[in-house]
């Protein structure tokens, strides 16, 4: 079996790039502006995965409270 991607580009697709859109993720946030968070503060925020960056190999997240 071959995928449509493989038929067009003659390269097997990299399945590591697949992820469920609009899934909930926890993103590490070590600072608030110029202040570091203390050991007892939460160091992650809940965000929504919205896509993949075109400039680099990373995911884009949306944090509703801070937009």
Question: What does this molecule look like?
Answer:
Helices cover 9% and strands 33% of the residues. The chain has 1 helix and 5 strands. The N and C termini lie far apart (43 Å). It has one helix at residues 4-9, and strands spanning 24-28, 31-32, 35-36, 44-52, 59-62. The protein has 67 residues and is mainly beta. It has a 3-stranded antiparallel β-sheet, with no helix packed on it.
Summarize the structure.
9% of the residues lie in helices and 33% in strands.
List the helices and strands and how they pair.
Elements lengths: L3 H6 L14 E5 L2 E2 L2 E2 L7 E9 L6 E4 L5
Antiparallel strand pairs: 1-4, 2-3, 4-5
Features:
67 residues, mainly beta, three-stranded antiparallel sheet, 1 helix, elongated
Query: Which value, in Å, is the CA radius of gyration?
Result: 17 Å
Number of helices: 1
What share of the residues lie within helices?
A: under 10%
| General form | elongated
Question: Oligomeric state of the chains?
Answer: single chain
Question: How many strand segments?
Answer: 5
């Amino acid at each position: 079996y071959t995928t449509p991607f493989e038929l067009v580009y003659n390269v097997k697709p990299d399945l590591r790039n697949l992820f469920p859109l609009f899934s909930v993720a926890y993103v590490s946030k070590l600072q608030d502006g110029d202040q570091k968070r203390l050991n007892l503060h939460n160091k992650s925020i809940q965000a929504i995965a919205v896509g993949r960056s075109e400039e680099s190999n990373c995911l884009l997240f949306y944090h509703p409270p801070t937009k």
